[in-house]
Amino acid sequence: MSLRDILLRQIAVDGPLSLADYMQTCLLHPDHGYYATRDPLGASGDFITAPEISQMFGELLGLCLAQSWMDQGGGPCVLAELGPGRGTLMADMLRATNTIPGFAPQLHLVEASPALRAVQRATLEGHDITWHDSAATLPPAPLYLVANEFFDALPIRQFIRQGRGWAEKRVGAEGDALQFGLTEPVPMEALAHRLADTKDGDVVELCPAAPPVIAEISARIAQHGGAALIVDYGDWISLGDTFQAVKDHSPTDPLQTPGTADLTAHVDFSALAAASACRASQMIAQGELLHRLGIGPRAQQIAESFDAKSDEKGVQSHLAAYQRLTDPAQMGTLFKAIALYPKGAQPPPGFDEQG
Ligand code: SAH
Fold first, then answer.
1. Domain 39-152+212-240+263-341 has what CATH class?
2. Which of 135, 254, 271, 320 is most open to solvent, judged by the fewest CB atoms within 10 Å of its CB?
3. Measured from the CA of 113, which atom of ligand 1 is nearest?
4. CA of 81 to the centre of ligand 1 (A)
């Protein structure tokens, strides 16, 4: 049975699905889910992420976490990643930090996809790694954690303001076709705080799965120390329809071929900060953060390591990667970051305290 047939049957039994239920099934269904069945990353996949663009991304985030570890007095700790993709970011972090005296973290990866776990195992061969299905089983220890393009893959619900109520967007069926529909508007406690800054017709998204993840990691950081770096595309507060499907590096209809396209939504960073049991930094644009962490000199150093005459292409593609990560017209401002860190500690390098 195809995923479309499974969804049609589910809709026939239970009625239209929330976008969250639709996303969850399309991304993680054990037999047909997008992440469950393939490695979608990289130039030959459907999309490319910062660590796949350049090693500098993981190096700088790794050094940022290691500096925070030193600032908090060092000692045994856990280095963890949520949604590690191909394991490239973790590999770059480990390489950049492996000469730091005393920094010998236990490695923990939270990954739902068996296909990607296998890729991570190969990328990180030689390292002792524990995999988890969810952040809830991470050990109670000082936690240094990174999550890049993880929260954008978590399922969202979408609401359209009508008067003082909210109509929810749903996926229903018309014959054999999947189709969007709307519920009747109802007042919603969870969106009461958005009545002041929205008007009729505005779209607001909620990601119910995100706060519990933040609660797990921030509780460990509050109790044992550590820091979390969260990087994703999104903004401080959710406004507008950001649900999108990408296949072969191009936008596609999210209802056309369920399970074969990446489905994402922008991250609402204020919702992550609000769920934190430890301190949350100000949000910062990715380009600005990487500049503060020293991507300029690092890019220069790597450029000089190429033999400019015989490997002009290598130099060019390295400089293009640097541009792509930092340029406001590319990923520089679309992607944002926040850090979580303990009360009483200073924020990790590059991040500012909230005023
Ligand atoms: N961080 C990587 C990959 C981003 S793609 C990079 O920057 O290249 C999203 C990753 O999150 C994939 O590894 C995917 O399998 C994983 N993922 C998505 N939903 C998840 C969930 N609910 N629980 C655990 N992992 C999840």
1. alpha beta
2. 320
3. 15
4. 9
In terms of C-beta density within 10 A (0-12 exposed, 13-18 middle, 19 or more buried), how is residue 312 classed? exposed
| Bridge partners (DSSP) listed for residue 246 | 251, 262
Written as tens digits, the pLDDT of the chain (355 aa) is 899 999 999 999 999 999 999 999 999 999 999 988 888 887 778 889 999 999 999 999 999 999 999 999 999 999 999 999 999 999 999 999 999 999 999 999 999 999 999 999 999 999 999 999 999 999 999 999 999 999 999 999 999 999 999 999 999 999 999 999 999 999 999 999 999 999 999 999 999 999 999 999 999 999 999 999 999 999 999 999 999 999 988 999 999 989 999 999 999 999 999 999 999 999 999 999 999 999 999 999 999 998 877 888 999 999 999 999 999 999 999 999 999 999 999 999 999 999 8
Q: 47 CB under 6 A from ligand 1?
A: no
Q: How far is the CA of 86 from the centre of ligand 1 (A)?
A: 9
Name which residue sits closest to atom 20 of ligand 1, judged by CA: 112
Q: How far is the CA of 119 from the centre of ligand 1 (A)?
A: 12
d(C-alpha 281, C-alpha 225), whole Å: 15
* Amino acid making up residue 24: Q
| CA 112 to ligand 1 centroid distance, Å | 7
Taking the CA of residue 83 as reference, the ligand 1 atom at the shortest distance is 11
For residues 138 and 218, what is the distance between their CA atoms, to the nearest angstrom? 12
Per-residue burial over 51-77, b if 16 or more Cβ lie within 10 Å, else e, is bbbbbbbbbbbbbbbbbbbebbeeeeb
Cβ(61) – ligand 1 distance below 6 Å:
no
Domain boundaries, the chain: 39-152+212-240+263-341
